[in-house]
């Protein structure tokens, strides 16, 4: 017998695979997968086509190639917005990631008191629209702000000290401060996970080898948190680069891409330039997304099942420094949000400081008032309900079935890219995709089957689900990965259909993740403004959009009141979530504890 | 009268993942009621083969016939088997009884009948009275018994076991080995178990299929495999084996030389030209320490390198040189019963004559092109 190389043997072997009989159950799985892919195509991918096409056409729809981009970059005013956005995003990323790193490290690795409280405060801005944070800054540092006027002249009058201080809020200072507040909790969440995933054995080994604490930090701590840092940088950069709310309120004459898009589309009805700027908004976040994906793919399991969790040891000096550091940051967050709440009750800031509820009576201001608030609540509820359904089914069919591998990989890809789409881009893309009664493709008019969605609650819900799809999807996937992959095999061997196992086993085991996704979708749909500001209709106003309009009209106190209502709804959602998870854990304790 | 047709037939199964070949031309018949082991190192394709038999994975080509029915294209849900995994794969949110009844409930059987069947299965695996517990409240061994009861609940014709004992403590593992075998014999169910543990295979199997690199290397009863391994790989993987490089000697049929020593091998038929290189193999427990060098045949004069106490026996590491200036001497291991040590000087460096009985020696031809 002659010896063949492995390569030759491979070539001689049969190709293809035995095709199993397609059962009714398999058809059901295929149908489910097709539904998920269909949803993601309509929600994520297809709307980008007319967006790109518009940026390459003139206002009459004729193809002009890169002319719009050339025009953009030859207009000094517009180019400076691009540079401004990059500056803002870079500065915010450096500050937010740096500050959050210290904050997360202090909570995970020191023995300072009050960790739970610090954690809760750090996450507080997540429950407020970025607009609200900017409004808080206005009340502190604006022209009539608390700090700017030296506590309304209090220091001047009583102490004779000119303690008033003007930070020149409107412009780059205000934007960076606002974005910092907005991005900090996001960076903190990611870095907190990274900081908690430490293997004590590595630290013991480093100590046994007599490495200095500084060297241990460089050799063990930083590499261990490397991927968390990359993720945090990606998230902060994307958020700050694309955010609309903060620059809208405190930007002054400092233009950024996000406000330019708003001005072009809403102010000048220039959709072509709106599309062009949207693509420019997409480019850096797309690049950041690709870098992050490559980095995460290289991440091997930092923590193996044999890792020993690191327990911090008390150290008086370090613990004190950590406590002071965290207290300062926590105080800053509380003061800004406190300013919003306080201002919403003050009669006439800063002249009549008596407390009143009159700003909560929205009848005399624009924006839609309580109806807008109710609409937002319903929209967020629908987004949470339908969102968690589609996200979880999508993650389930991708993670737990063996149906049509290429299509499953495609569905996974679509599920992951939505995170790179800024809300404003989703909003504009949806206008182009859903608004026309018919699409013109290569000269042919094709009736638009989705046109009926335009201006309805459904399109708002769709935009929210797509906008927050990726993070929800990853939460679901992580939960599903923790469930034994052989459950499906065992069920098949007992001839139990997959949907029964899904209902009796998979779903009950994933309920905490389902609750988390629902809460996440509700809160984000409540606070978001960027996607929905292009999509709401006059009959269907929204609370977060109302803040923009009230602020534009100078009704800042009403904007503050609306912000407080949104924060309240989000905190209640969070509370409901906590109670639900607590109840779930109590009920399921029997099969969790040995 | 011919033999009854085999219960399960695998015909020329191939499996490849992209460019890598996982299984190559696997053909195998399993008789009804047989306990068959798929044994091999990790990555040899044994688990893939089990999953193909179950229909959890599709072969690239080949045919599978179970109980006279071609099941090659049927998905797992349309085949007839019960399966037990290393991870137990018990549903954590269902009680022991509900886990076992999971498949039964789907059959729309009356409640009382299901309850009776669950009790019967619990008795079968010795877990009476634990039906209301949740899996997390059981020990590893108990959990694996529940998994076994669940796999048997629908009275499948074929029981598949994917390393079911690997996650358990040594003592529990030893107990469960005997119980699984007894249960399988009692129910008469055809069983296929995947394992990388040769001891497990030797004690439990009716027949062992030894696999390596996606191919079947040898099929046989445990004793046959142990005594007549087909290749050096099997010899080394099932039990321990000493390999001594040797040459065919011209002194007569079945005589070989390793260095200065002549070894006669009983039953050696093959006529190789004198000077051909071969590999001589002998198990550690078959070697005898001689009290003194008598100059008789089949004795190697060795030097003690180390002695390890193993409990019931000592493990001696010895070596000898084929030439005086050989850089890497040939090592061999001898298992010596504890009581036998008192007669010998076994200090490191001591010279020890070792007798390799002619009926315990095996000869493997070297593959062409392999250098000694």
Please provide a written account of the structure.
The complex is a heterodimer of chains A (594) and B (372). By secondary structure, chain A is mainly α. Chain A is built from 24 helices and 4 strands. In chain A, strand 1 and strand 2 (352-355) form a beta hairpin. The N and C termini of chain A lie far apart (58 Å). Chain B is α+β, with helices and mostly antiparallel strands and 372 residues long. In chain B, the strands form 4 sheets. A 6-stranded mixed β-sheet of chain B has the order 6-7-8-3-9-10, with helices on both faces. Chain B has a 5-stranded antiparallel β-sheet with strand order 13-12-11-14-20. Chain B starts with 7 loop residues before the first strand and ends in a 7-residue tail after the last strand. The mean pLDDT of chain B is 92. The A-B interface holds A 3, 6, 9-10, 13-21, 23, 25-26, 484, 486-487, 489-497, 500, 504-505, 508-509, 588, 590-594 and B 14, 16, 19-21, 24, 54-56, 58-62, 72-79, 81-83, 85, 87, 89, 91-94, 102-103, 106-107, 134-137, 150-151, 153-154, 156, 367-369.
Q: How big is the Rg of chain A?
A: 26 Å
Query: Which secondary-structure class do the elements of chain A indicate?
Result: mainly alpha
The share of residues in helices of chain A is: 55-70%
Largest interface: A-B, 39 and 48 residues
- Mean pLDDT over all positions of chain B: 92
Question: Would you kindly provide a brief summary of this structure?
Answer:
The complex is a heterodimer of chains A (594) and B (372). Chain A is an all-alpha fold and 594 residues long.
List the helices and strands and how they pair.
The complex is a heterodimer of chains A (594) and B (372).
Chain A: H1 6-12, H2 24-45, H3 48-55, H4 67-73, H5 76-109, H6 115-123, H7 130-141, H8 150-159, H9 172-196, H10 200-208, H11 213-242, H12 245-250, H13 257-267, H14 271-298, H15 316-345, E1 346-348, E2 352-355, H16 369-400, H17 405-417, H18 423-434, E3 438-441, E4 444-447, H19 457-467, H20 469-481, H21 487-493, H22 498-527, H23 543-552, H24 556-587
Antiparallel strand pairs in A: 1-2, 3-4
Helix pairs in contact in A: 2-16, 2-17, 3-14, 3-18, 5-9, 5-11, 5-15, 7-9, 7-15, 7-24, 9-11, 11-14, 13-14, 14-18, 15-24, 16-17, 16-19, 16-20, 16-22, 18-19, 20-22, 22-24, 23-24
Chain B: E1 8-17, E2 20-30, E3 35-39, H1 46-54, E4 61-66, E5 69-70, E6 82-85, H2 96-106, H3 111-124, H4 140-152, E7 158-162, H5 170-187, E8 190-195, H6 198-204, E9 207-212, E10 215-220, H7 222-227, H8 232-237, E11 242-248, E12 255-258, E13 261-264, E14 277-282, E15 288-289, E16 299-309, E17 313-320, E18 330-337, E19 351-355, E20 362-365
Parallel strand pairs in B: 3-8, 3-9, 6-7, 7-8
Antiparallel strand pairs in B: 1-2, 1-4, 4-5, 9-10, 11-12, 11-14, 12-13, 14-20, 15-19, 16-17, 16-19, 17-18
């Amino acid at each position: 017998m002659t010896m063949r190389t492995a390569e030759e043997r491979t070539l001689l072997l049969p190709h293809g695979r035995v095709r199993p009989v397609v059962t009714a159950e398999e058809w059901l799985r295929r149908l489910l997968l097709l539904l998920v892919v269909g949803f993601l195509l309509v929600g994520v991918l297809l709307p980008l086509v007319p967006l790109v096409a518009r940026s390459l056409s003139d206002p009459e729809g004729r193809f002009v190639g890169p002319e719009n981009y050339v025009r953009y970059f030859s207009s000094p005013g517009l180019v400076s917005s691009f540079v401004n956005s990059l500056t803002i995003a870079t500065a915010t990323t450096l500050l937010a990631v740096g500050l959050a790193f210290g904050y997360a490290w202090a909570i995970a690795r020191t023995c300072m008191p009050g960790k739970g409280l610090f954690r809760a405060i750090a996450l507080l801005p997540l429950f407020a629209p970025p607009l609200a944070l900017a409004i808080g800054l206005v009340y502190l540092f604006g022209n009539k702000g608390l700090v700017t006027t030296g506590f309304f002249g209090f220091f001047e009058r009583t102490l004779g000290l000119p303690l008033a201080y003007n930070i020149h809020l409107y412009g780059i200072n205000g934007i960076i401060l606002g974005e910092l507040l907005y991005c900090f909790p996001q960076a903190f969440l990611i870095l907190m996970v990274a900081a908690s995933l430490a293997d004590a054995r590595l630290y013991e080994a480093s100590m046994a080898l007599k490495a200095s604490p500084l060297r241990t930090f460089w050799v063990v701590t930083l590499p261990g948190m490397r991927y968390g840092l990359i993720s945090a940088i990606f998230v902060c950069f994307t958020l700050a680069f694309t955010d609309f709310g903060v620059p809208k309120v405190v930007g002054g004459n400092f233009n950024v891409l996000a406000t330019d898009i708003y001005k072009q589309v809403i102010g000048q009805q220039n959709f072509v330039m709106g599309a062009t700027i949207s693509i420019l908004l997409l480019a850096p976040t797309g690049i950041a997304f690709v870098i992050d994906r490559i980095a995460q793919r290289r991440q091997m399991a930092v923590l193996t099942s044999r890792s020993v969790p690191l327990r911090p040891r008390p150290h008086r000096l370090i613990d004190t420094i950590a406590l002071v550091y965290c207290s300062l940051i926590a105080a800053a967050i509380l003061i800004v949000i406190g300013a919003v709440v306080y201002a919403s009750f003050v009669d006439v800031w800063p002249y009549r400081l008596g407390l009143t509820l009159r700003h909560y009576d929205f009848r005399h201001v624009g924006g839609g008032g309580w109806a807008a608030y109710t609409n937002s609540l319903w929209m967020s509820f629908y987004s949470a309900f339908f969102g968690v359904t589609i996200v979880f089914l999508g993650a389930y069919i991708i993670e737990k079935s063996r149906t049509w591998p290429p299509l499953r990989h495609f569905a996974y890809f679509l599920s992951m890219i939505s995170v790179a789409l800024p809300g404003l881009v989703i909003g504009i893309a949806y206008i182009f995709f859903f608004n026309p009664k018919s699409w013109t493709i290569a000269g042919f008019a094709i009736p638009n089957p989705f046109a009926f969605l335009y201006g309805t609650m459904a399109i708002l819900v769709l935009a929210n689900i797509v906008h927050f799809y990726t993070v929800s999807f990853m939460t679901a996937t992580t939960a599903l990965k923790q469930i034994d992959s052989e459950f499906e095999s065992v069920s098949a061997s007992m001839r139990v259909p997959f949907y029964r196992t899904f209902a009796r086993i998979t779903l009950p085991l994933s309920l905490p993740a389902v609750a988390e996704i629902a809460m996440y979708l509700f809160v984000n749909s409540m606070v978001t403004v960027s996607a929905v500001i292009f999509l709401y209709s006059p009959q269907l106003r929204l609370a977060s959009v109302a803040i923009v309009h009230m602020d534009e009209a100078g009704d800042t106190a009403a904007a503050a009141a609306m912000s407080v209502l949104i924060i309240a709804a989000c905190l209640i959602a969070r509370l409901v979530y906590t109670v639900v998870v607590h109840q779930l854990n109590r009920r399921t304790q029997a099969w969790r504890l040995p | 009268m011919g033999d009854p047709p085999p219960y399960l037939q695998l015909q020329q199964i191939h499996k490849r993942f992209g460019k890598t070949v996982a299984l190559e031309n696997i053909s195998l018949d399993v008789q009804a009621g047989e306990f068959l082991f798929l044994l091999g190192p990790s990555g040899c394709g044994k688990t893939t083969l089990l999953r193909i038999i179950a229909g959890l994975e599709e072969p690239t080509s080949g045919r599978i016939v179970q109980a006279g029915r071609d099941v090659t294209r049927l998905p797992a849900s349309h085949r007839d088997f019960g399966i037990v995994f290393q991870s137990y794969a018990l549903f954590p949110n269902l009680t022991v009884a509900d886990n076992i009844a999971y498949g039964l409930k789907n059959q729309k059987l009356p409640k009382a009948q299901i309850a009776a069947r669950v009790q019967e299965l619990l008795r079968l695996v010795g877990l009476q009275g634990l039906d209301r517990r949740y899996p997390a409240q059981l020990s590893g061994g108990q959990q694996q018994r529940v998994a076994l009861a669940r796999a048997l609940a629908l009275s499948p014709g074929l029981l598949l076991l994917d390393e079911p004992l690997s996650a358990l403590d040594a003592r529990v593992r030893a107990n469960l080995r005997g119980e699984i075998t007894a249960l399988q014999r009692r129910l008469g169910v055809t069983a296929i178990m995947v394992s990388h543990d040769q001891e497990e295979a030797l004690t439990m199997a009716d027949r062992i299929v030894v696999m390596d690199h996606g191919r079947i290397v040898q099929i046989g009863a445990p004793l046959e495999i142990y005594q007549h391994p087909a290749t050096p790989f099997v010899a080394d993987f099932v039990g321990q084996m000493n390999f001594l490089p040797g040459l065919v000697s011209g002194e007569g049929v079945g005589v070989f030389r390793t260095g200065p020593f002549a070894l006669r091998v009983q039953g050696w038929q093959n006529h190789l030209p004198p000077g051909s290189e071969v590999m001589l193999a002998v198990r550690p427990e078959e070697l005898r320490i001689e009290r003194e060098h008598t100059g008789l045949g089949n004795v190697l004069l060795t030097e003690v390198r180390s002695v390890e106490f193993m409990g019931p026996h000592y493990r001696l590491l010895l070596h000898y040189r084929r030439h005086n200036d050989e850089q890497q001497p040939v090592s061999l291991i001898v298992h010596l019963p504890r009581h036998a040590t008192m007669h010998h000087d076994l200090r490191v460096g001591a010279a020890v004559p070792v007798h390799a009985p002619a009926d315990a020696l095996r000869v493997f031809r070297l593959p062409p092109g392999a250098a000694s």
